[in-house]
Every structure is written in structure tokens, then in C-alpha cells.
Amino acid sequence: MKKILLDTSAIILHATKERDFEKIDTIFKSISSGNAQGIISGITLTEIIYVVGRQSLEKAFNMIAFLEESHIKAIDCTTPIFVNAGNISLKYRQKNLSIADSIIIATAIAEKADEVASSDKVWKNVKEIKLAEI
């Protein structure tokens, strides 16, 4: 079964139904129908609370509940993930890749995700993952 890691940008795009919503909606439908396995990095939960919670904590917690109901598994960050994230941050420091993004990418690598769904343009530079642009 195909394993897809969802970046925070993908989750927020799906929830807000903004531009190019159809691409991410197709990915969510594939996950909910059991044709793909959806995962997120644990740090994505923090990003959702911080980014969405600035407008509404209720919306942030509703997003997290939706992920749980959709059987999207949050992957705990481990020491090897953090170490690899540090290496990724160093490698792509000239590309303005954030620490959180590096942790998410390291999670995708550790989990052997087939694709990473993200609308973050800086991720195009990352060679270690297959990007499913949304």
C-alpha cells in the first residue's frame, strides 16, 4: 500500500479548501478509502495548533480530530529522526528550509513514505523525498 506523508501545508489547504483543493482532496480520498496510508510527523500537530490556533483554537482541535477520524497516523519523533533532521537542515540551509520542515522530511524518510504531499515550494529542492505537489 502506498504511504503518503502529509505536510502541514497540505492539511491546512484541505481544511480551508483554497487554491488547487482538488489535488489534496484526491489524496485524502485515497487515504480514507484505504487505497493509501496517511501519516504525519508529530510536529505537524504543533504547527496546526500554532498556525490555525492563532485564528481559532477550536478550528485547530477540529483539524486534529479530523486527522484522527481519517486514520492518519501521527509518527512520534525519535532521536534518529531529530539527528537526520539536523543533517537535512545543514544540507539545505541555503534553501531556507525550516527546522520543522526538516523534521517532517526526516520523518518521511524514516517511515519510507512513497510521497510527501506539500504545497511548500522550497521542498522542490529536497532530493531525499518524492514530492506530490499540491
Description:
This protein is of the alpha/beta class and 134 residues long. The chain has one domain: 5'-nuclease (Rossmann fold, 3-Layer(aba) Sandwich). The protein has six helices and five strands; from the N terminus they run E-H-H-E-H-H-E-H-H-E-E. Helix 1 packs across helix 2 (21-32) and helix 5 (79-91) packs across helix 6 (99-110). The model has no long low-confidence stretch (mean pLDDT 92).
β-strand number: 5
Q: On the 0-100 scale, what is the average pLDDT?
A: 92
Order of helices and strands: EHHEHHEHHEE
Give the termini distance in whole angstroms: 21 Å
Tell me, what is the CATH class? Answer: Alpha Beta
CATH superfamily: 5'-nuclease
Strand content bin: 15-25%
Helix proportion range:
40-55%
What's the Cα radius of gyration? 14 Å
Q: What is the gist of this entry?
A:
The radius of gyration is 14 Å and the shape is globular. It contains 6 helices and 5 strands; from the N terminus they run βααβααβααββ. Helix 1 packs across helix 2, helix 3 packs antiparallel against helix 4 (57-69) and helix 5 (79-91) crosses helix 6.
